[in-house]
Amino acid sequence: MIITKQKDFDELLGMMDGQDSVFIVGCGECATICRTGGEKEVAEMSSKLTEKGKTVTGTAVINAPCLELDTRRVLRQNKVAVDKTEAILVLACGAGVQAVAEAVNCSVYPGCDSLFLGNVFRHQHFYEKCSTCGECVIGNYGGICPVTRCSKSLLNGPCGGSIKGMCEVDNKKECVWISIYDRMKKSNTIDRLSKVLPAKRHSAGTIPGRVINGA
Amino acid sequence: MGLREIFVQKDFVVTTEIPPPKGVNTASSLDIAKKILGRVDGINVTDNQRGIMRMCSLAFSHLLKEIGHNPIMQACTRDRNRLALQSDILGAGALGIENICVMTGDHPKLGDHPDAKPVFDLDSIQLIKVIKEMETGVCMSGKRLESSAKFFVGGVANPFFEPFELELIKIKKKIDAGAEFFQTQPFFDKESLEKFLEEVRGLNTKFLIGISPIKSIKMINFLNEKVLTKKIPENISKRVETAENQTEEGIRIAAEFIREIKGMVRSIHIMPIGIESYLPYLLNEAEL
Ligand code: SF4
Ligand code: SF4
Q1: pLDDT beyond 80 at A215
Q2: Complex ipTM, two decimals?
Q3: Of A3, A175, B43, B248, which shows the fewest CB atoms inside 10 Å?
Q4: CB–CB of B154/B131 below 8 Å?
Q5: Is there a domain that residue B116 lies in?
């Protein structure tokens, strides 16, 4: 899922400066789990904006705003409120914001910062393990991804900076190369690390991605 | 004469390092270099060390060569992608800069431009391999170069990395990729050095043993906290802390250590971070 965090409220007000009416869109999937754009957060945002003198013309928590046709349908269902608003604030990831922006003519603003594609370890513990690089190479690393989980995306072993198993960039994060080593040691495949592995083919992950199956 | 020949001809090889200036005026950095002309076998020119932006290693390496030094151009993979790195290698070849020390480099978040985009397109091992391929007249994409040069390529090693087996795998891979020398992280005691030499015995390469003269007790605390896996021995901290002049005491400790290990190793690399002007004093004290 996509991990988000809500933007600072003052930053939101700054973006909407001069626009008095706002419609709020939330997300029933990822942003609900992250507590950044579910029913509760949308209601809270609505009262905070009202307190600041904005007119909230309506709200809608869309199942998954990134499903563009569903998003259009819900916005059509809310046509009256949407037509009279100057701005729409979307409490979802950047993909959801854009699905809304491409469906309407008024201003559309992101209410969240999109952080990463994350695994949920336990309640409200999110970890980035894959950055969708376009060509999965983790077969070489015991199924653990150095592209994403090493701060330098090193493919041939750790940098010299790891201290007591933690990463030089942030001592709260584990150096993934220690995890790769431990795993490959356990599966008796450590000798595979002795091979010089080639540089990443960044062409495989050129943005923006586009896949149309069966066409 | 490049480092490769120096290693053949001399019994004891000494290199050091001088960072390029954070500005365009090179006079004071070159002044330090002039004072040690003929006394060291190579000067490592750091490449935005610790992620702090300075003049490029290529230009300063060239200036050092012009005054008669043997520069070791550092190339880290943090700031440049494969195109930019290879361009610089060609530039070095054209300017007659032979020695290149490759490393990944500290993450930009730790430096003075924390918002910079970290590049890390290649890792150190891949870059070493690319340079060796370029020597044969092809660039990384397989396209032919119009002309090529020979280099003496090396890397860095961390003797204190745990688990050391993982570091050893990496050292061996660098050798497989074409590394012919290694600069190590600094040693502060003989026992650790003996242990390391035992662990890398039989490897067909040259280790320039890192020596880091201590500037002050503040530096020891910083290194212990942020940089070193193995802490600086207590007796050294005590000597520095109680000394009248901490920097001079640090230099004397380093010099004593060099004299102590001279019979054990064939080459050392002195990293006088921030106290480059003390180099002549250190070389005198170490009887080099
Ligand atoms: S190698 Fe690429 S696709 Fe595979 S887990 Fe890592 S980032 Fe994701
Ligand atoms: S400490 Fe480990 S995870 Fe962090 S950058 Fe270095 S190798 Fe990567």
Answers
A1: no
A2: 0.94
A3: B248
A4: no
A5: yes
